Amino acid sequence: MSESLVVPRLAAGAHDLRPWEMADLPLVREASADPYIPLITTVPPVYSRAEGEAFVRRQWTRSETGAGYPFVIERRRDARPVGTIGLWLRDLPEGRATLGYWIAAPHRGEGAAGAALSAVSEWALGTLAVPRLQLLVEPWNTASARTAERAGFEREGVLRAWQEVGGERRDMVMYGRVGSRPA
C-alpha cells in the first residue's frame, strides 16, 4: 500500500484509541524497560529521547505510507497512555491483515489489550471490510492467548520456528478471526 491513511479515534471500553504523539514518549520509555517488548517490536531496547522520538516517527510513517494503523491505547479516566495496538496491511491484497499489541508492564491486567483488540477488530472487519484478521502469540504467553480468544479470535495452529525473537527462532501460535461468511 502507498496511500496515506488517517488513524481514527476509536472507543475501546474504558480506553480510547488514538494516533501517536510526541507526548507519548513516557510510554516508549516504559516499553523500553520491559525485557520482552523490545525483542518483538521496534521499541528501542535502550531508551533515549532521540530513540523515543524515532520510534514515534516510525509510527507516523506507517500510516503515511499506507502500511497500517498504529494506535496508542489511552486510559480514558486520566488520559494515560498504557500501550499500543497496530493493524498492519501488508497482506491486504490477499484479504488479510495482522494485528499486534503490547501493554506497558505497570498497566497489564486492566483489560486494555482486550478492549483495544475488540474495538480494532470490529472496525477492521466492519468499516474497512477486511475479510480476515490474524495475530501471532508465543505458546508460553497465556495472557495474550486469552486476550485474543476473548476478542473472538480462534487458535488455528502452531507455526514452527516462525519468527526470530531475541536472536533465536521461536514457534508462534496463529490466531484468526473472520468477518461474517455468506450462508
Automatic annotation (TrEMBL):
Keywords: Acyltransferase, Transferase. InterPro entries: Acyl_CoA_acyltransferase, GNAT_dom, Ribosomal_N-acetyltransferase. GO terms for molecular function: acyltransferase activity. Residues 15-177 form the N-acetyltransferase domain. Pfam families: Acetyltransf_3 (PF13302). It comes from the Bacteria. Gene3D superfamilies: 3.40.630.30. It is an enzyme of class 2 (transferase). Its EC number is 2.3.-.-. This is GNAT family N-acetyltransferase. It comes from Streptomyces lateritius.
